[in-house]
C-alpha cells in the first residue's frame, strides 16, 4: 500500500551501443535506496538509451543527479554521432508525477535537480515543459535547436543563457534539459478487422490533430491549405492524444496505437470508450486493448470507477476489485494476461520491499503480534482495529447502495462507501508505519556515540524518530474519529439489516482512538520539544472526548433502530 509521494524520472543518455557505460550509469541509480530502476532501453541507431526510474522525490533527485554525473564522466559529446537530436551526455531528464504529488511540487524538484547539475557539475541546463522558466523554453525542440554542435554559440546569446550552470559550453558533457511533464501512457486498442486503412480512419477521428481537410470527397478531394501553404486539419475528438492505425501480424488484428500524453486530460477509459463509439459508426467492434509499459495505479482505479458508475454500482470497493473491473471492461487481458504487479507502477515498487503486516492473514497477524517481538504493538493494532471498524461501515454503505428498492439512493451510498475505503487505506498504511516508526527509534539509539559530533547526530536522530513515533498514532486518532462520521450515517440511513455491523464499527473506532492516544503519550518520553507535544496532546484530548461522545450517541441510535 503506497501512501508516499512518488515521481518518475526518464533520463535519456547519449550512448546506445556500449552497455558497459550504460551499466555504470544505472548502477549509480540502483545505489540509492528508495528508488527502483524500471526499464533500460538502448538504441544503437539513435546511439541513445532511455532509462526509467521511480521512487520518492528526494531519492529520485539524488539518483538522477548521480546518473547525470556519471554520464558526464563517461560520455564525450565531442565524439558522439546518432540519428536522434541531442545536445548533451544526459540529453533530457524529465520528472513525472506518479502518486500523491502535484505538478507544482514536481516543478520545484525539477528546478532543484537543474540547479545541482549546473552548480555542482558545471553543466549548462535548460528547464522545459512545465518546469520552463521562460515561455519559449517550454517546447523542448526550441531548447535543443542547433544540437550539440551549435550549443557553444547558442548559450552565449543573452536570450539563450542557460537557466542554471555556466554560459560557456562544457565541451565533454554538452547541455542538459531538465523538465516536468505529465505521465504518458502508450495504449493500443484492438479491432475486429485486419484493415489498416479503417483503423487509421478511426485513429484520425479521435486523435487531437485529426485529419487533413479536403474539398468535396473526404478521401480523394483536394487538400485544403492555409495562407502559408500548410494543410488544414479537422481536429479529432480527444485532447492530448496521438494515434495511428496499424496491423499487428503477431495477433492478426488491426489496432489503434495511441499515446495519451496527459491522462488527466484524456484518461485511458475515456480513450477506450471514444474509440468504441467511433469504431461502431464504421461497422467495426473493439475487442480489447493493451497497455504498453507501466501505468499509475490511479489511472486503473479511475477506470474501474468509471465503468461501475455506468452500471449504477457502488464505487466504494477495494482497489483489487476496481482493477479487475477496469481490466475486464477494457479487455486488457485479451492478448496476454494482465498482471497488476507487473503493469502498475506502485505495485512494482512494493514488490521486494519486505514483509508488511497488512499482507499477513488474520491468523498470521495475530501470531506476529503474539510473538516475542515488541512490534507490532498497540499502535499498529489500534490502526488495524480502526480499519476494521470503518470497513464494517463501508460494507453497510455498499449493501445499501445495492439494496432492492433503493435504486435512487445508489450514488449517495456509493459516496459514503468511497469515503470509507479512503479512510481504510490510510489506516492500513498506518498499521505498518507505526512499526516502522518504532524501528526508527531503535535504529537511532543504535547510532555511534564516540565523538561529540556522533552524539549530536545520534541525539537529533532520536528526537526526529520520537516526533515521528508521536505523529503516527496521532494520525490514527484523527482518522479513527473521521471514520465515525461514516459509521453514524450508516446507523441512521443504511440498510436496517446491518445496523449492528455499523454499531460494532463504532466500538472499534472508539477503541482505536483510546489505544492510539496511549501510544502518543508513551512515545513522548525523552522528547525535548515540550511545546510541540503540548500542542498535539491538547488536540488528542479533544479527539478522545469527541470519540467517546460519538460512540455513545451511535450506540444509542443502534439500540433505537433495533427496537424499531
List its salient traits:
564 residues, Four Helix Bundle (Hemerythrin (Met), subunit A), 3 domains, 4-stranded antiparallel beta sheet, 14% strand, single chain, 17 helices, 7-stranded mixed beta sheet, Alpha-Beta Plaits, alpha+beta, Formiminotransferase-cyclodeaminase, Chain B, domain 1, 52% helix
Structure overview:
The chain is an alpha+beta fold. The protein folds into three domains: 6-180, 2-Layer Sandwich (Formiminotransferase-cyclodeaminase, Chain B, domain 1), CATH 3.30.990; 185-349, Formiminotransferase, C-terminal subdomain (Alpha-Beta Plaits); 355-563, Formiminotetrahydrofolate cyclodeaminase monomer, up-and-down helical bundle (Four Helix Bundle (Hemerythrin (Met), subunit A)), CATH 1.20.120. Helix content is 52%, strand content 14%. It contains 17 helices and 13 strands. It has helices spanning 19-30, 57-74, 103-121, 140-144, 147-154, 196-206, 268-281, 297-310, 319-330, 340-343, 345-350, 362-370, 378-401, 410-445, 452-493, 499-523, 530-563; strands at residues 6-9, 12-13, 35-43, 48-55, 90-99, 124-129, 175-180, 185-191, 211-212, 233-234, 241-248, 253-260, 286-292. Strands 1, 2, 3, 4, 5, 6 and 7 form a seven-stranded mixed β-sheet that branches. It has a four-stranded antiparallel β-sheet with strand order 11-12-8-13. It has a two-stranded antiparallel ribbon with strand order 9-10. Strand 11 (241-248) and strand 12 form a beta hairpin. Helix 1 packs antiparallel against helix 2 (57-74). The longest helix is centred in the C-terminal third of the chain and has 42 residues, at 452-493. The radius of gyration is 28 Å and the shape is flat. The protein starts with 5 loop residues before the first strand and ends with a helix. The mean pLDDT is 94.
